[in-house]
Amino acid sequence: MITIIGGGPAGLAAALAAGESGSKVLLIDSAPRLGGQYWRHLPENGAWGKQEAIRHDFEKGNQLRQRVAQSVNIEVLSNAHVWRASPHDEHITLHLLVGGVGRTIDVKNLILSTGAYDRSLPFPGWDIPGVMTPGGAQGLLKGNYVLPGKRIVVAGTGPFLLPVAAGLAEAGAEIVALLDANRLTRWIPKFHIVLANRAKLREGLGYFQTLAKYKIRQQRGSAVIQANAGSDGTLESVTIATIGRNFRAKAQEIIKCDSLAVGWGFTADLSLASNLNLKQDVLEEDKSVFVTVDEMQRTSMQNVFAAGEITGIGGHQLSLTEGKIAGFAAAAQFGHLTDVELKGKLEPLLAQRKKERKFASALISSYPVKPGWQEWLAPDTCICRCEEVTMEQIQDSITELGATDARTVKLFTRTGMGMCQGRICGRAVIDIVGRESGINPTIQDYISASSRPIVTPLPLGILEHAPHIE
Amino acid sequence: MKKLTFFFDGIEVSAIPGQSIGAALLESGTKVLRSTRIENKPRGMFCGIGVCFDCLVVINGVPNQRACLTEVAEAIQVINQQGSGAYPIEGAS
User: Which part of the chain is the FAD/NAD(P)-binding domain (chain A) (predicted)?
Assistant: First the structure.
């Protein structure tokens, strides 16, 4: 039996590769319906008049889900939150919360495909209702047929802003502006990589066409540096600024809007990988953390594979490719594929992965997050949303109490100690402390930010009855 | 499309089966889902995918439920969470 955690593109591809090779598969997913964030959907998605807004690649997701449903080898456990993975000598114990009920499963072979979430940067007013992540805004559309607002600003950086803005526009929202902090000129030295990934190029051009069709104001080298609330406490306008290459704000302007979707790329969800002490590393370019894998997607732990965003942010195509490789490699371990069969299956996939990783790496260098964003912060800007810790409190813990690393700041101020366990502010706090203290964060600082012995908040009764948590 | 009804702070809200509580509320014009423990500030949906825990509401008397993850169900009583939600409003079953 091969257990897969996470039913997004990577997990679906892994389940099908392993299951259709003859291995028994248990696919565990926290959502009610498979597909991950990328293929989030309502139970019946026929009777909506704005289907074109969410059609992008949706058919592919439907096909994969159908194949999973038809496979006699794949068992699906939905609505199941793995809140802890405990490593033992011969097996791993997964602690789950399934529909509010505690349960454990011992597994020997695991594929982790836990995905990613939007990376956020704190800025004045980012806690005002009406400010969301782009993933959240798109999730409202894909998974709910709901728009986050009527007049929307989309901002931050990265290629993901394009489908978000295009989809919201097609669904009937007014996109007041699309702002990317980075300029497209960063692509010029990498254009040969774009040409080698023509499907991506076509996809991108399609979004630009939609943006042009709706006459959406696009501005590159600009950012939202402040969100402003109206008398009812919800978002009324945003302050935007042209910014330099280092993100320092220059000329400013106020734009009226009732919704802001702002994000800065993605952060891998490494909580379970950390539970298992899987070897992780930090990408030099953007200091993002990822699980280290070999050619076959094997992690540092025997019989544990990783695929998709947790091995490095790269989008759904790369996730599908990595999922397939992990699924076939895991199936081969059980003798469900001969060496020759495995080699035949892997050959095109490895070439594909190489090409897609190159593209992912070009994306990362084309949409950097530069340290000037910290100058947008005011002393009373909320940094840790859960524990309501301000910039000033963090600065005080450094200047008055002598903290020189994010962990010490956490102990003094409670940053990252709230219900999200530092998922939202953790990385930003590391960067802030590095800059304010003048001491560069270590690789370990970045890696340990996703160390969460218990991955999701639990009722105490569940913990009380959980056996052998190690 | 099939519809169902639930309640937010006692007021009827219409939703499509499968929608999250947060999404259905947004559709009905409700952006503020809770107020914070320390500064009593309004908060709403932020990450939308269960990561940030900012959209916490009280559902049928149980506090700290994520409005973005919890799907709507017929006749559930949802209320705006004040602070930690430890003392839900009386009568919210």
Answer: 2-315
